[in-house]
Amino acid sequence: MRIVRAKNYDDMSRKAANIIAAQVTLKPDCVLGLATGSTPIGTYKNLVAAYEAGDLDFSQVKTYNLDEYRGLPGDHDQSYRYFMNVNLFDHVNIDKANTHVPDGLMEDYEAACAAYDAAVAAAGHQDLQLLGIGNNGHIGFNEPCDSFIKGTHCVDLTESTIQANSRLFDSIDDVPRQAYTMGIGTIMAAKSVLVIANGDAKAQAVHDMCFGPIVPSCPASILQLHPNCVVVADEAALALCPAE
Ligand code: F6R
């Protein structure tokens, strides 16, 4: 696991966008695993700017997002499909047919989750998987639990995640209690992983991800076993990590 220190959120966002841009430049038909949330917004802004400057071409890129709230349609303004359209897909020359987000309204969800994993595998797995990290160490919506769950599945969100995500909803009661998420096995199958984190609320989770025991109570800790994982984090998020 390589740790790259960023000065602040903007620096983290530029560094992360540069890594993703290098991936798209080196392999124009690459498969990107993408994340939502507050952390990647600046990264996506930098990618849009690079596209507008003529430096990036997304026409052959395929994307698979990590997760989606159960019960939210893609046009709901808090759905992750909507987030991806607004923050990235609507602003670059990606073919929307090549963008994939788990369907929050899937009916036979076990079959649909298995189909999502099969589609990621059939695409050759993610060349690069972008991840944020939850205050509780979750990746995707793989919440702290007793075991690492391999495939895409439905999860009950923890109170801490519902609380953290309520800032984006009118009221905490509007936050869905369940979500679909890529599993740990699907994430670990990516050829490279880029984790981004900023702010002191993430400091404990970042420490445990990088230096703690590899345990499902901190799902991100499994990334210590990934052969090609880079963490780009700002000073506040790295505050509890050893200096070098
Ligand atoms: C979102 C996702 C989550 C977030 C995490 C951090 O697709 O997979 O794991 O990355 O909850 O969220 P923010 O960036 O809002 O702090």
TrEMBL record:
Q: What Gene Ontology terms describe what this protein does at the molecular function level?
A: glucosamine-6-phosphate deaminase activity; identical protein binding
Keyword Nucleus listed: no
Any single GO CC term annotated in Swiss-Prot or TrEMBL for this entry? cytoplasm
Its EC number(s): 3.5.99.6
Keywords, in A-Z order: Carbohydrate metabolism, Hydrolase
- Reactions that this protein is recorded to catalyse: alpha-D-glucosamine 6-phosphate + H2O = beta-D-fructose 6-phosphate + NH4(+)
Q: Does the keyword Hydrolase apply?
A: yes
Query: Which CDD domains does this UniProt record tie to the protein?
Result: GlcN6P_deaminase (cd01399)
List, from the UniProt record, the residues annotated as the active site of this protein. D67 (proton acceptor), N136 (for ring-opening step), H138 (proton acceptor), E143 (for ring-opening step)
Parts forming coiled coils: none
GO terms, biological process: carbohydrate metabolic process; glucosamine catabolic process; N-acetylglucosamine catabolic process; N-acetylneuraminate catabolic process
- Source domain of life: Bacteria
* Family to which this protein belongs: Belongs to the glucosamine/galactosamine-6-phosphate isomerase family. NagB subfamily.
List the protein's name.
Glucosamine-6-phosphate deaminase
